[in-house]
Each structure stands twice: as C-alpha cells, then as structure tokens.
Amino acid sequence: MLTFQYDKYKIEVRNDSMYTPGSADNSFQYDFIYTDKDSILYQASKHGIKVYKYEELYQSAIVCAVGGATGVYDHSAIVDTDSIYICCANKVFSMALPDLTLNWIVQTDHITCFSIYSAATVFFTHGELQVSKLDRNDTII
C-alpha cells in the first residue's frame, strides 16, 4: 500500500485484485470505476484509491486495465500538483484531487508500466519494454 498526504487529505493506494466491476459481492463499493476501453470483460490489474479528510472517507475510485499485470509498489503512483498519477497494467491514469475525477488515461508501454516519476514539467514512466516521457496532458513526447 502507498500513502500520500495532500493538503488536509490522506490518500491510500492499494492493490484490489479481488474486485470485480459490477459485482454486488465486492467487499468495498468504490465511488468511481475507471477502466480502459480494452478491459471491459477482463482486467489484469486493479488498484483502489481512497481519499480521507480528517480520518473520514471522502472519496474513492478504482482503476482497472488490461495489459501486463502490475501491483502497487513504491513508485507505482505519485501525487503532483492537484492530481494523482497511477500506473495500472500498461497505462497511467490521472485523477484530480481530492475528488478523484478522471483527467485522462494513456498507454505508456506495450506490456506493463511499473513506475512513474516527476521531473519539472514532465513525467517519466518505466515499463517492461520502454521508458516514456509524457506531459501533464497525457501526450507522450
């Protein structure tokens, strides 16, 4: 699990591989479910995000994607400016903070995206096949 502090909010990111979109049997019901267009029937990776305000759950979302399976590790997500960026399968999901509304999704590797790093006005992602550089508007440079 990763934990971030953003203003008066605490953000937790964790792997939620048992989650099934649309199922009533999920142990937690997220406020938002974000999937890439290819993962409607199958998701290789599922990462849950919970935002707490003063120790009370404020908002939650889960990102689901198909591609190489990923987990949540030290560099799987970053909080930068007013957004959180999360590697999930071979994509990066960007969500506005604190409300977790989706900004964009972009594929940064053909197989898997392991980590994301912030550098000045751009991001770098480390994937299985490539290192990608992207701007804050989802454009790969």
From TrEMBL:
Source taxonomy = Bacteria, Pseudomonadati, Bacteroidota, Cytophagia, Cytophagales
Name of the protein described by the UniProt record = Uncharacterized protein
Domain of life where this protein originates: Bacteria
